[in-house]
Amino acid sequence: MLKPIQIKEDLYYIGVNDRTKALFENLWPLPKGVSYNSYLIVDQKTALFDTVDICYSDIFLQKLETALDGKELNYLVINHMEPDHSGSLRLLKTKYPNIQIVGNKRTADMVSGFYGITDGVLVIEDGEQLSLGKHNLVFYLTPMVHWPETMMTYETTEKMIFSGDAFGTFGTLDGGITDKQLHPERYYDEMVRYYSNVVGKFGSPVQKALQKLGHLEINYICSTHGPIWTIPEQISKVISIYDKLSKYEGDEGVVIAYGSMYGNTEQMAETIALELAQQGIKEIILHNTSKRSHSYIIRDIFKYKGLIIGSPTYNNKLFPEVATLLAKIEERDMKNRYFSYFGSYTWAGAAIKRIAQFAESTNFEIIGTPVEMKQSMSLETYDACIALGKTMADRLIQDR
């Protein structure tokens, strides 16, 4: 029989690790896997917080049965209905037919739509409370963080917040499950990548959620992905990461993302990067869009203020990987970036015009004069790339 992990008195971790799935949401790479976290409070009444992906339902149900130790399961609190968390719901309902499913109206609609379950659903309102005995739960609706039904549940006795996907990270939990048991810094970049890839479009709803929950004293953040945050400094840090990302605030630095078929456009990117460094910019990230997953490029764009895009003309359009990246950036409604661009062509230029259209659709501040190269690097093109790099560096330095 598989055993749960007791986090503290009355609280058990019954999540699982997924080291098999290659792509999260069938989009984002998982080189370090991902965890699906579920929690159980055992009190006069028992409450389970979210389930796990259906692929791991057997492990999950064994851990749950062991943690209950013969007790009845009274409540399932659904903070988020995405199937990597609600996937085991139908099996859970079969095993525990008297369970009360707790969620808001939108949750109830999705429970019916996804799983055909309409009985035993307790619909709660924003701020409503539920007593388990010595543990009291308060429900806070946080729509569009990052689905319309998402909410967070705050336990008032131990001051624990079950936050759904918020404050989650990619990466499995390899033995340790709390920040005290592992090196939390190895999860920071994966938290930024998770936020930028999955939640990134919803900066305004995230800000509203942070403001709604800002008055709460929090001793534990129990997310549905990644470590459980318990150290006060770590709790402050992960909240500050979400606050900064949702305001679209970047650090000093530049991401240069480019496409290049035969290396000529890449030479432009290299030249711009060299001048940025000469001007004192130390954080310079070059991404070849054909070699690097867009997941990591988007992460870095969320991290840094400066963004420079380069593309050759391809079939009288943008290089396909660059076009796809620009669409993903546009989808996230990003703000507060300094933007420059460059392009190349052999016989008819279109890349610069296409990137200009993208620039007009964003809220970015356009920096410098776009550089367009015909065929290969000339002294004139080299100087123009140098000038572009210097102008971007000057703009970043103004903010120091």
Automatic annotation (TrEMBL):
Gene3D superfamilies: 3.40.50.360, Ribonuclease Z/Hydroxyacylglutathione hydrolase-like
A GO MF label: electron transfer activity
Domain Flavodoxin-like: 254-393
InterPro entries in the cross-refs: Flavodoxin/NO_synth, Flavoprotein-like_sf, Metallo-B-lactamas, ODP_dom, RibonucZ/Hydroxyglut_hydro, Rubredoxin-O_OxRdtase
Domain of life: Bacteria
SMART domains documented for this protein: Lactamase_B
Family: In the N-terminal section; belongs to the zinc metallo-hydrolase group 3 family.
Protein name: Flavorubredoxin
Naturally occurring in which organism (per UniProt): Dysgonomonas alginatilytica
Taxonomic lineage of the native organism: Bacteria, Pseudomonadati, Bacteroidota, Bacteroidia, Bacteroidales
